[in-house]
Every structure is written in C-alpha cells, then in structure tokens.
Amino acid sequence: MNIFRLAGDLSHVVAIFLLLWKIWTTRSCKGISLRSQGLFALVFTLRYLDLFTTYISLYNTVMKILFITSSYGTCYLIFKKFRATYDHNVDNFPLQYPLGACVILALIFNHSWDPVELLWTVSIYLESVAIMPQLWMIQKTGEAESVTSHYLFALGAYRALYLLNWVYRYFEEDHFDAIVVFAGIIQTVLYCDFFYLYITKVLRGQRLKMP
Amino acid sequence: EDDIEGHDEL
C-alpha cells in the first residue's frame, strides 16, 4: 500500500457516497445513468469473485464488500425506489459493443485461462469504459448537476491516482501489470474532457454545461 | 513476471 493507492481508494469511496447522498437527499436520480451503474455492479461482481478464494487483507476484503454492496444499492435506488425520476429516454448508450469488445479483449490479452482470472480481466477492461453511458448522457442533456460533477471528478481521480500508484510500484517494487495499466490509461483518458470542464467551470462556481 | 496468485489491488 502506498499513498497514491490509498488516496485513489478513498477517492473512490468518496465518489460512491457522493452519488448515494445525492440520490438520497434529492430523492431523485435525475441525470444518473443506470447503465453505467449497472456496469459498475457487474465489474465489481466479476472482479471480486476472489473474495471466496483468496484472502489479501482485512482492508482489501472490507473495500471489496463495500464496492459490491454500494453498487447494487445504487442500482436499486435508481431502478426501484426513485424509478419515477430516472431519465431512461436519454440513458440509451448501446451496451453490446463495449461488452462484446471487453470479452474479446480478455480472451486475447489475459494472464491465464483460469475462469476466475478471465472474469477478472473482463472486469478490468469493462471498468475502463463503464462510465461511457454516463458521459454520453451528460453530452445529450448538455449539462450535469454540481453533485454529479463532483461524483464524476472523484471517480475519475480514483483511477488517475492508481496510475501514479503503478508508476510508484514499478520503480519501488518492480511490480508491473500491463493489463491494468493499459485499461487504467484508457479509463483516465475518457475523463480528460470532463476534468477540463470541471476545473474551468465547476470549481469556479458555474454549472457544468457542454460546449 | 505477473502475480496472478491474487490481485492485491481493488
């Protein structure tokens, strides 16, 4: 564990609670993509199957359970509890392409053909593009509420901080995993446009509007 | 080499 990874994990936790807090306090999931949240639930389910096979640390186990339960909780709030406020008309990013591409990519580039390992690999690729339905939705509606912007910033920062963690681990621990680094770069690049708007607009008190 | 005996990151 190093400071970048801890900061990344904490940023991820902040993102999750910001989103839950926004939905719960406004009693609305307006502007939130169920497709993205569903992908995150799928990502954590596929990735953390090793909860049953490998123990790493209490921290690791607690975080995994937190990510899985909160992602399903978020989906429940959008799909059931506050369904009336869900913008299903604009949440229509086609999911078959990223899903298909991630499965094919995992079959070509993986560490081993162990089933759990293959599902882990799919989850790594899938996480890198899971935010696309959300970004697509903002692009279509042309704006995002400020809490949604903070959520997205924290979520993007999480993988960006992990990139620093991988640089650190490469030099300090001689640890390098090409799959996560490749996916992490793609994931972070997808947020770049949003980061720019967030820094130039939201942090100056303006609403996030698409140019 | 890759450490596939458990991924320690989240």
Set down the secondary structure blueprint.
The complex is a heterodimer of chains A (211) and B (10).
Chain A: H1 3-26, H2 34-47, H3 58-81, H4 96-108, H5 115-129, H6 132-141, E1 143-144, H7 146-172, H8 178-200, E2 208-209
Antiparallel strand pairs in A: 1-2
Chain B: no helix or strand
Number of H/I helices of chain B: 0
Distance between the termini of chain A: 40 Å
Mean pLDDT of chain A: 96
**Beta strands of chain B, count:** 0
Helix content of chain A: over 70%
Estimate percent helicity of chain B: under 10%
Amount of beta strand of chain B: under 5%
What number is the mean pLDDT of chain B? Answer: 68
For the biggest sheet of chain A, the summary is: 2 strands, antiparallel
Pairing-aware structural class of the strands and helices of chain B?
A: little secondary structure
Summarize the structure.
The complex is a heterodimer of chains A (211) and B (10). Chain A has 211 residues and is mainly alpha-helical.
